[in-house]
Amino acid sequence: MTRDEGAGRRAQQMADRAAAHEAELERALAKARQRRAGWEAGAAGERAVAEVLETLTADGWQLLHDVHWPGRPVANLDHVAVGPGGIVVVDAKNWTGSVTVREDCLRQNGYRRDAVVASAGAAGAAVAALLAPRHRTCVHSVVCLVQHPLDPQRLPLGATVLGADHLAAWMRALPPVLHPAAVSGIHAFLGRQLTGPTSPAQTTTAALAQAGPAPVPPPRAATRRTAPPAQRRRPPRADTAQRQRRRRQRWVGADLVRLLLAAVVVLLCWGWLTGLSAGGAAPPTVAPPGTVSR
Fold first, then answer.
1. What fold is seen in the domain 45-200?
2. How confident is the model at residue 231 (pLDDT cuts 50, 70, 90)?
3. By three-state DSSP, how is residue 263 classified?
């Protein structure tokens, strides 16, 4: 191989590498453009849903847009509406293609979108966890489809799916559960919680699912049967043994005193009886009747 041929091969290799890098950059650029288009479509869908919700302010509804998702620092809630019918958490979807609901399942172009419905239900639950217990049952989760006029359908995963053209009528038809003062109070409270610098923290059981099932403790080894606590004799303490020893000493001293007293009494009685038998006076004699004494 000549020097010119070697230089040409190296140049071709560099050109191939540059072409491969250019193709990789073009694929990355296409993905970035696709993501940008998706974000722009999502933003347009959120604006369209916000315009629908604005028509409900005359009916007593108060709105929050693009707020924190409680417990998820990097997620957001598209819309939260508080009104006579309760608290409605809306997830706006500006999907293209065919969107249907069959057998309680949301599908886009034939693919199941269960995760979207479950996510909307979780968003409503996160908002409900911030409220007082009497208000938690007033929360509704909604997946609102901007480009598809679907009738409202409640799905088992915890959310109602409907088209944007049915959203206002569906919210007006909700049975009234909140009076105007409660609406203003809940709206102000959620505004403080969801529009601050950080997402409000929540304590959930998500860590339990990540940690897996709790370990089962090993069975305890068989132990020798012992007498019940009432029947077991506890070893005497040092102070107890000392008290018992002193008590026995007092008893021995008392017994000695009793013996000495008994001995003294016996000696006294013995001496008295001996004295009577040895030198005591004879008893006087009595003369018979009729005898004259001289």
1. Trna Endonuclease; Chain: A, domain 1 (3.40.1350)
2. low
3. helix
